[in-house]
Design brief:
Length: 135
């Protein structure tokens, strides 16, 4: 939202409003700082998502190894510790939506995490043996 505001309101006002002509360079610097901040937020989110995907792949491998050895899926991810993973990692380095969710039931077993909260939850289905999205 901030990025759109910068492009659709901030830049035109800076160049078109005559009252900003004397401080145009200063306004452009401020807009540049805000724009860089927006880009950093997206870059950090993308990095966190790659980290979560990598950690999820390791957990999927651990759950599959557990299933191969015990002929059942673990009841929780904590059941994988310490034989299959050293510890259950956080999905991402964020304050919210930073944990993996693991569910097993008669309908199937799945692992998911929040890619872009609150929507976009990549989900691994152990029944189908592939990745998909909850929403």
């Amino acid at each position: 939202m901030v990025g759109l505001w910068l492009l659709l309101v901030g830049l035109p006002r800076t160049f078109l409003a005559k009252k900003y002509a004397t401080v145009r360079a200063q306004r452009l610097r401020y807009l540049g700082v805000y724009f860089v901040a927006v880009l950093l937020v997206f870059a950090i989110n993308a990095t966190n998502n790659r980290l979560a995907q990598s950690r999820a792949e390791r957990l999927v491998s651990a759950v599959k190894a557990f299933h191969a050895q015990n002929h059942r899926y673990p009841k929780s991810l904590e059941e994988l510790v310490p034989d299959y993973v050293e510890l259950v990692p956080l999905a991402k380095y964020t304050f919210l939506f930073n944990k993996f969710s693991y569910y097993t039931s008669d309908q199937g077993t799945s692992l998911f995490y929040a890619d872009f909260p609150p929507f976009g939850r990549p989900t691994y289905s152990f029944t189908r043996n592939d990745w998909g999205y909850l929403d």
